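Recap for those who missed Tuesday's class. We walked through two folding examples back to back. For each one, the amino acid string is listed first and its predicted structure tokens come directly after. Nothing is annotated here on purpose, so try labeling regions yourself before you check the end of the notes.
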Amino acid sequence: MEERLQKIISAAGLCSRRAAEALIAQGRVTVNGRTAVLGGRANPECDRIKVDGKSLTRDSDLVYIMLNKPRGYVSTLNDEQGRRTVAELVRDAGARVYPCGRLDLMSEGLLILTNDGEISDRLTHPAHEVKKIYRAEVSGEEIETAVQRLRGEFRLDGRKLRPAEVSVERLERDSAVLRVAIGEGRNRQIRRMCTIAGLKVKRLCRVAEGELKLGNLPAGQWRYLNEAELRYLREL
């Protein structure tokens, strides 16, 4: 739950609330890498709060995991409609972790969860240009023409998208398996692009984010990130 920054800093035992306000006013406090402002709020469970470059959260308290999200789960911790959530799959991770971005209900594959807000921001903010790679099983007529269309210019919600990188893994008369890489994460972006191109998505699986690869992790299972993967995230 979000709280005022000065309250969080004071609760961490660093200084009084009044002194914390002065630190914020002096630009000495950051939240997920961005300079905080007076009146700002944060979630101490998932936002990385630093004072003079030093984190309020001990590194030993930070958890980073990779989940192979199955279809039929929503990428949130709670769902008003009572649907199954990814929180049910990672409840034994040893900490309350939050999804870095989302996969829609019927999409599956790689999902990173952490309580490190700064790392989450690095993975999801378009400025960091972390490529998200998907394996899409599609059907339709004129598949080769549709693939060329997918490589072209698109606008969604009034905004121009960066070109997608699309390659064909398998091609049949009225179906194909595509590998699609995008640098953005617009809502249901690949599904919407396929619809515009005249394709129906039968299955969509995220297989990588940057250098983080799903590999052979079974559906519904999770694992902690290894040292090489953590090093990659910190160097983004």
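Example two. Treat it independently of the first, because the proteins are unrelated.
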Amino acid sequence: MTEIKNVKVFTEQQIFQEGSIFIEDGLFTGVSHKPEEIIDGQGCYAVPGLIDIHFHGCMGYDFCDGTIEALEAIARYEASMGVTAIAPAAMTLPVEQLEKILANAAEYKEKSGRKADEADLLGVNMEGPFISKCKKGAQDEAYIIPGDVEIFRRFQKAAKGLVKFIAVAPEEEGALAVVEQLKDEAVVSVAHTNADYDSAMAAFQKGAAHAVHLYNAMPPFTHREPGVVGAVSDSGHVTAELICDGIHIHPAVVRATFRMLGSGRIILISDSMRAAGMPDGEYTLGGQAVQVSGGRAVLASSGALAGSAVNLMECMKTAVKKMGIPLEQAVACASVNPAKRLGEYDRYGSISPGKKANVVLLDHDLNLKAVIKDGSKIYESV
């Protein structure tokens, strides 16, 4: 048994409480025996391992590279940053290429002998190809296609069930049929869409339950045209992603969104691409050239934002330190809520007996001090 003592533990009630955490056989336990190992948390915050349900890559690699090497490097970096579980996002690419990428993810998931310092792959977030050309963002227009249930099932077969999210633009051909027929097979999300309020509401009423990077790649929220954002607000079952990198959304809008939706419906994401963990320079995303300067990633061809260059832990810290979001709410939005949205809250997302012992220690300035994954320390700051 391991005891992590002298920490402020993030509880199921989403408050911090001074105490100890006990770990046995890689799981949290509520039973205290004489510990074989004692870790002094030195007054740090102890939060559940974070879960990023929407990002593309880091350290020069991308999920869509479609190689085991890329997934290993991505998972290792994310875990070292306190993101101990992941659901990377696929870009809009040819269907056959996406099938190979998904098959690679399934192979990685089943691979024996994986190292303990790699984040757990919990699923895949399909950001395309059933989206709108007029709100394509950094997606390649050449590969955008109408919604198609059978193509989704090809994706899911290749992924061996790993696809947890499938995005649609509600106003596009085939989208509502996809929602109706797939709502029980995956979380249907609204993304890269020009839908007005009524079109978005139609999708949510038929079973869509998630909004991809709210405010980005969708119509603006105004007093006469509330659009997708207004429809999300009016649909209590819908969760919404927010990119809190300080570039994609103004801090005042982040604060307003927390007031509008409540912290229980918001999921913080990084939407990071290859440049996360890397210096400024030239990269690619979905086969398109990206220029990263001052931490801002844009398409070289158009200047459109092309994801972020920071990880989820940095986004959570930005939400708290620069946007005024209470730490308790930010932690819930980066751990509890994504675990619930993935259907994995029985194993992830809180420091509770029986769950996987993934815990991150942060000092009072939210600097990363240690990462414990499956009960073993995989990172410690010097």
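Answers for example two:
The chain has a mean pLDDT of 96.
The CA atoms of residues 79 and 119 lie 5 Å apart.
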